[in-house]
Structure formats: structure tokens, C-alpha cells
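User: Before I run my own analysis I want an independent prediction to cross-check against. Here's the chain; please return only the C-alpha cells and, at the end, one sentence I can use as a sanity check.
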Amino acid sequence: MKDAPFHALGIDVGGTKTAAGVVSFPEGRACSQRLIPTEPSRGGEAVLNDVVRLAEELTAEAEALGQKVKGIGLGLCELVDPAGRILSANCVRWQDQPVADRLSRLAPVVIEADVRAAALAEALFGAGRSLRIFLYVTVGTGISSCLVIDGHPFIGARGATGTMASSPMSVTCEKCGHVSHRTLEEIASGPALAARLNARRPGAAKNGKDVLAAVAAGDADAREVVQSAGESLESTIGLLVNVLDPEAVIVGGGLGLSEGPYWDSFIASTRRHIWSEVHRDLPFLQATTGQNGGIIGAAATAWKKFAGKGV
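Assistant: C-alpha cells:
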């Protein structure tokens, strides 16, 4: 007997933008979508007001079409524990905000880390469907990762998984002795690429995609920024491959889904940082749920929880 359709609202709150959409299950099809800037510098309450308003609009639109929203999944660019409690406020300051309470007036709510939500989307509906173990990496405004085993994103003991780019790298220059305490996100994320190019030429880039466009146009400064960022990112991913032994690496996020020289150099450099010949030829795949992965994954988290789908 075919399952009855289950409609869930997926909300993906990132550092740059907030995406939301109603998703129909079991097929995982996004029916309607909306995108707004997050602007977290305004404070947690302002961001939450925008998210609640967006949720209200989308649930009303769905119900007008006869699609009853039965659950809300929210993926957030912060640490989230196994009980759905928000553990950090590095970007969106929601630890003191009644996020679940306000959204639950519309439908039951589950909160998840955005990288685990996106990894779930790939496991259920994307490039990871045929894989038992894969590593999901997202590269955009932030950089994070998630190991997926048998269709389940690994959550860890405290929910603090995925922080591959948040700790200081503490690299000492052998020539001058300077110790860099920058994190990988401060070197290789989209905002970092723009900031580093702007440090050389003020006003040269608004975001990471501007830097990649400059590389494609032959800009030598942009190429040096991207190459050094790539080396740092790829050495970290190579280390994760050596430690976790996945069947494949799936890459998402705004920069991770970029085509051309960035992607080609990303693959080649990562392979150079993989120690074992056993892993050297493992597949590197772009996330096939694309920019909708966060929405679909957040909604799928609600589907699993409220429709009893222990996928």
C-alpha cells in the first residue's frame, strides 16, 4: 500500500541566507520555496521574527493548495544536540530565543544542525542513496562536515560533530616563525576568500563567487587566494578521509557546488593529501540535491520524526 503524502516545512537558516520550502514525502519533492537574507548581525530576535513570518506564509500557501503541513524541520548553522537544543551562537544568536515554541504554533517542530540535515537529504534523495558510508562536506559561508552511516547522519555524543573548520590551525612558518591561529573558515570559506582578496585590493569582491569569477578571468591575486585556501581545505578533507575511510565524499554548499577551476583543483589537491593508496581514487561527488539540500533535509528530519519514518 502506498504511503499517504506527508508535507513538511523545511527551513534552512544559514549565515548569509535563509531558505524555506514545503516538501512532499515520500518523494522528497520541494513544492514551494522562498529565500530571504538572514542578516544575523541584527540579533537573534529579529532573525527569528523573519523565520516565523516566512513559516506562516508558506504554511498558509500550502494549506490553500490542500497541503496540510504536518511538521517543521529547521536546519541551523550552529551546534545542535541530540535533543534539538541549540548549543552555540557563533552566527545566529538563538540560545535565548523560544525558537521551537514559536514555530510549534504552526506544526510540530524539530531542530537539527544544518550540515546533518543536508547530509540526510543526500542520503535519502541524492548522491548518497547507494552508499553505506560517505562523508558530506559543505563549503559556503561556513565549512562543516558530517559522516553518514547506513543513511543516518552521525550525531556524536553531544551533537558537536562537523566542526572541521572551527578550531585554530596553529601553523608555524618555518622561515619566519610566525604562528597563524586562523581557522579553516577564516581561510577558505566564501566570506574569507572575499576578505582576503579585499585585503590586497579593497573592494575587489563582495563574496566568494566574485573571487572565483576573478580567477576565471585571469586575476593573479584571486588565484593565489583560492589556491592557498584550497590547500588548507583539501588537507583537512584528506585527513578526514584517512581517518574515517568513507566510500565517497559528497560536497555541497555555494562554493562546493561551483564548477570549473575551483572544483577541478579541489579534487586534484585533495587526492594529493590522501595518504593511503586504498583511498586515493575514491569518488568525489557534488551534492545532487543542490541548493535545495538544506530545505529537503530539514523537512526530511521532520518527516522521519513525525511520520514514524526511521529511515
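Sanity check: Residues 69 and 144 are 30 Å apart (CA to CA).
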